[in-house]
Amino acid sequence: MCGIAGIIHRNKTGNVGAEMTGMLQAMKHRGPDSTGFAFYGVPTEGELLLRFKVAENEDLDSGFEIHEAIKQRRAQVDERIESMGGEIQVAEAPTEYAFLYRLRFDPKLDSLVRLADYIEDVEGAEVLSIGNALELVKDLGDATDVSSRYEMGEFVGTHAIGHTRMATESDVDICSAHPYWAYPVSDVSVVHNGQLTNYWSKRRELERTGHRFLSDCDSELIAVYVAELTQRGKSLEEAMHQSVDDLDGVFSYLVATSDELGLAKDTMAAKPMVLYEGNDCIVMASEEVAIRTVFQEEIDTFDPYAGDVRVWSTN
Fold first, then answer.
1. 127 in helix, strand or coil?
2. Do 122 and 148 belong to one domain?
């Protein structure tokens, strides 16, 4: 079932933390297992944002040893960042097991893929996102719980996407929660409602080009697929149009980059999506009730048509 939502403010910032929390909470009935946010703030020159975890929330109940293991794993991550020339400017720990680092890291000296791979090789570590604008937060619980736990209610930024999940084919854990980052491409994330029937064939194609997948989720495939095409020179809109032809199945998905947000529906339009398009703010969600949490005044919404692709920019 699941529910997805997106919002983008044009030529300004907004309280996307509170807005996205309200939208996803309104769709809690579509997926109570986990909630995820991909927030985009205004980049700071020379600063890289790293979100990662070294354990799951449920691991904390397994005794004293896990708490010591978390400390050791985090120390290993710190050592690996510094060994690659990264400088940790700020280290925040909203939970015992998940962290936000603000880094000075020159990609000319080393690639993001090497940094991400090196961190991922620490036992229990998972890189949730790396970017100049993106902060990806996901955990078990509903939107209010996760937003409060990570103090995201006051997040000010230009745009955001989010997901509320009902687990049907994989575990209930952070790794299986959405959104997904397009590992290891900076600032690209995806939320998706539906199912891809050619997931494994497309995954093998991308793996042959050198991509590494962190899950067996088809939403991650969409993120990597779109990022791969944009890296080859296609615009986000061109890449998304190609995805409607190349990806089999039923789907509605939202993809975000540092300065754009896009929407795509499959040619059967089997998965719901409702859209409000204003001059300064565009909002979309699986249900209209989510959009109505953002606006007090009367607005007109509509359903994108089959095979529709739309892309908006922050400026």
1. strand
2. no
- The Cα-based distances of 208 to 19, 45, 62, 151, 212 in angstroms read 40, 34, 39, 39, 10
Are the CB atoms for 166 and 33 separated by under 8 Å?
yes
Please report the pLDDT score of residue 176 as a whole number: 76
Residue finishing a domain among 88, 107, 132? 132
Q: With 0.85 as the threshold, say if the pTM is over it.
A: yes
Q: Which residues fall within 8 angstroms of residue 234, CB to CB, at 6 or more apart?
A: 242
* CATH classification of the domain holding 53: 3.30.70.60
Half-sphere exposure (Cβ direction) of 311: Cα atoms closer than 13 Å:
14
Q: List, in order, residues 6 or more apart from 46 with CB less than 8 Å away.
A: 104
Question: Does 181 lie in the same domain as 154?
Answer: yes
What domain range is 283 assigned to?
3-43+141-313
Model pLDDT for residues 60-115, shown as the tens digit of each residue: 887 779 999 999 999 999 999 999 989 999 999 999 999 999 999 876 656 888 89
Residue 217 is among the residues annotated as catalytic for this protein = no
- Asked whether residue 222 carries a pLDDT value surpassing 80, the answer given is yes
Active-site position among 2, 175, 217, 281: 2
CB of 294 closer than 8 Å to CB of 23: yes
pLDDT per residue as tens digits for the range 194-208 = 999 999 999 999 999
